[in-house]
Prior knowledge:
Helix content: 25-40%
CATH topology of the domain at 60-251 and 385-484: Rossmann fold
Organism: Yarrowia lipolytica
Signal peptide: 1-17
Subcellular location: Vacuole
GO cellular component, one term: fungal-type vacuole lumen
Number of helices: 17
GO molecular function: serine-type carboxypeptidase activity
Structural class: alpha/beta
Amino acid sequence: MKFSIATLGLAASAALAANPLFKDIQNVLGGDFSKKLGNVADKLADGARKTTADSANWLYTATNKAQFPNYALRAKDPSSLGLDKVKQYSGYLDVEDEDKHFFYWFFESRNDPKNDPIVLWLNGGPGCSSLTGLFFELGPASIGEDLKPIHNPHSWNSNASVIFLDQPVNVGYSYSSGSVSDTVSAGRDVYAFLSLFFQQFPEYNKGQEFHIAGESYAGHYIPVFASEIQSHDDRGFNLTSILIGNGLTDPLRQYDEYEPMACGKGGAPPVLDEPTCENMRDSQARCNGLINACYNTESVWTCLPAATYCNNAMLGPYQATGLNVYDIRKECDSGTSLCYKDLEYIDKYLNQPEVMEAVGAQVSEYEGCNFDINRNFQFAGDWMKPYYTAVPALLEEGIPTLIYAGDKDFICNWLGNKRWTDELEWFGKEKYEPKELSDWVVDGKKAGQVKNYKHFTFLRVYEAGHMVPYDQPKNSLEMLNSWLAKDYSYGSK
Length: 493
């Protein structure tokens, strides 16, 4: 069965073994590593996008020359597409001196936009569009086979206004003549976007709370982006909380849980035979040693070998089964190179000229995931870096943090996310770590398990894969609403 693992991005590096570039890196742990890395880097595309002339009829173009002298924000009204009846804006944050242009799409709350919170949603990859989150998971509409919008009654804008942002550059509708290859650089751009957005639309910054949510590689992004926001004493908006779903945040502990998840210890039947499981266990010590070296130096010379070896040793055996890495219960949809056929409908919809015109898209083609960006982050050593270390400071500053995980995901499974949250060194660890999981109940039914102390929460979501809102739309909205209402314990003791 053909399986394009680049579909949603995070698993893309596991597919390097099937990529021609892998011939250059498969022996990267031996020989003249620096020479080999240089050869690979020379072959990487910069991810630059073909663009179209700017013929859009923009409603606004905003600037802040004092604080952001080289930034501007463009906005259109895309409501003619009929995705929702609420007020909407779409457009670009332009970084003129660096030729970077970030696409966003904003939807007001269906409830009380003057008072409801604002949520920034980020998909992962790295290199995958947040419009996947919009249309496939938690936005006001999905896209059917006939390329028509389908109303989503469980949209996350039911009680919050939501911003979907395509970042880093050259992802989705975003574009640039250059590229970004690390999480820290991406964070500076996101801070500038938010500052200009709230300046242009002050009606959404009049005491409303602001949250950042995302999934997958956003487990890297969000701690760094939140730290970037908190580092600015003169910021014009305040961060209320962060939410990370099935994220990659602490690779050292999360990669330790691939063998247990694949071999029947995560609540799902084993999908690998015992000899394969034993081989994975035998590879674990070397993988851990390489990740530790990356953690100690945060250098491409240690972090790239860790990603190369560990992805092949710990992800490769599962990938070889042909099962869906985002849902251990399923094979990929037949007849398509993508695991979810609905993603093809989204790509087709967003490539329609009338849609691109309505939202102000300035690219010649929309792609759900840009594999060049994924490789660039990988070869910059970003994949294995210990971005989880930003979380304790955020908790110390009083930023509530939710780590949630669908328990049928393999690639960022619940075992790994529970493991790193249990072992995180923070001021509440002594009280948090020994706690047992409690039932999370929705409408009288067990919907998952929760563990909480103060404003730090881990939530296991039953019968959901990597994309929790896709598999459990009603329960995921309940999860969000409870969090926004500051029920950080979800009823646990």
